[in-house]
Amino acid sequence: MVIRVAVAGASGYVGGEVLRVFSAHPDVEFGALTAHASAGDTIGAHQPHLVPLASRVIEPTTVEALSGHDVVVLALPHGASGAIAAQLPADVLVLDCGADYRLASADAWAEYYGGEHAGTWPYGMPELVTPNGLQRSLLPGSKRIAVPGCNVTAVTLALQPGIAAGVIDASDVVATLAVGYSGAGKKLAANLLAAEGLGSAVPYAVGGTHRHVPEILQNFASAGAPNPRISFTPVLVPMSRGILASVTAPLAPGADADSVRAAWIDAYADEPFVRVLPEGSWPATASTVGANTALVQVTVDAKAGRVVAVCAIDNLVKGTAGAALQSMNVALGLPETMGLTMMGLAP
Ligand SMILES: NC(=O)C1=CN([C@@H]2O[C@H](COP(=O)(O)OP(=O)(O)OC[C@H]3O[C@@H](n4cnc5c(N)ncnc54)[C@H](OP(=O)(O)O)[C@@H]3O)[C@@H](O)[C@H]2O)C=CC1
Ligand SMILES: CC(=O)N[C@@H](CCC(=O)OP(=O)(O)O)C(=O)O
């Protein structure tokens, strides 16, 4: 079987990671590679680490260029993906790595992103708990998939077992994230001067303003939280990749350390890409670099009466490109793990 894949945004961080991750899939063959200002350049000029693709020429992102493929991956700024996706044929599988189609609520879109809401597509997180079972059962046959936000993936995977099992109170969640520079995209990351960024940790989008807040709350509600609330603070730290989400919530009445641990272990026992670490060992972003891995740990802070859950991912793999490939496999009826690995890169 050959799956012809077009990648829009091939000059960016996510586009580059889509090219790297998807090239490990035995059935994938790349068709058009498109972008915007870099059209006419070679991939090698923008992604020098992708040596086998170095001589491929980047085309402008047009409906014509993206037509005639089995799969189109959009790795474009939000807004740009909605504009092009609306013109793509209905029978091509479109995986949008941007935010345009993630939210179910047009009001939430207007509040956090502004402008018109493009719509809502099936959500590309196979592990998500939904009222109708796990999200993976809803993806086969889908022709449109909204790939989750990277911070959202880390926070959701950290906490959803406790929500689904009823052992935490999700109306008072506090999340603090250490996030790497590549999450900001190539253009912004280039502006983060090493002289100022190195050696410093800087919070941003503080006070409930981050665009991922409504997406996280949507996932918590999907997992069964009746009135989810979160105080969310991302902190930019000097690493190129990685997200470490530390998430806490009150212990539900009647729950204890045993029921909490059992909830997390049971939730992820059969998940190919989520690993609950042995007790006492805590996730590190370095162990996820380059892999479609989510490492999770949980404990009870008895004095505070709160559950503390931590999740580490590579923002560009499980946080985006890996999640896209995982969802593509499920949508096409292929083994979910095809072409994906939990073997990271270290040291
Ligand atoms: N970085 C991350 O960790 C994550 C990012 N995402 C999302 O993925 C998407 C891509 O992000 P990222 O790769 O980081 O961003 P980059 O800035 O690194 O790359 C953006 C890409 O989009 C292209 N582009 C910009 N404007 C247009 C346009 N008007 N029409 C067509 N192409 C355009 C650029 O092309 P050119 O260079 O030629 O101008 C470039 O290829 C965003 O929606 C982002 O929010 C999601 C999860 C994680
Ligand atoms: C460091 C940094 O800025 N990280 C970005 C990552 C978000 C991202 O890219 O996700 P979307 O697809 O939802 O835009 C942020 O926190 O906004």
UniProtKB/TrEMBL annotation:
Give GO MF terms, alphabetically: N-acetyl-gamma-glutamyl-phosphate reductase activity; NAD binding; NADP+ binding
- Where does it mainly reside? cytoplasm
Pathway given for this chain reads: Amino-acid biosynthesis; L-arginine biosynthesis; N(2)-acetyl-L-ornithine from L-glutamate: step 3/4
Query: What Enzyme Commission number does this protein have?
Result: 1.2.1.38
Q: Show the Pfam families listed in the entry.
A: Semialdhyde_dh, Semialdhyde_dhC_1
Top-rank lineage group of the source organism: Bacteria
Q: Can you give the residue ranges of the Semialdehyde dehydrogenase NAD-binding domain?
A: 4-136
Keyword Oxidoreductase found = yes
User: Where in the cell?
Assistant: Cytoplasm
Catalytic function, reaction form: N-acetyl-L-glutamate 5-semialdehyde + phosphate + NADP(+) = N-acetyl-L-glutamyl 5-phosphate + NADPH + H(+)
Q: According to its UniProt record, which protein family does this protein belong to?
A: Belongs to the NAGSA dehydrogenase family. Type 1 subfamily.
Sum up the protein's function in the record's words. Catalyzes the NADPH-dependent reduction of N-acetyl-5-glutamyl phosphate to yield N-acetyl-L-glutamate 5-semialdehyde.
Recorded protein name is N-acetyl-gamma-glutamyl-phosphate reductase
- Native source organism of the sequence: Demequina lutea
Q: What is the lineage of its organism?
A: Bacteria, Bacillati, Actinomycetota, Actinomycetes, Micrococcales
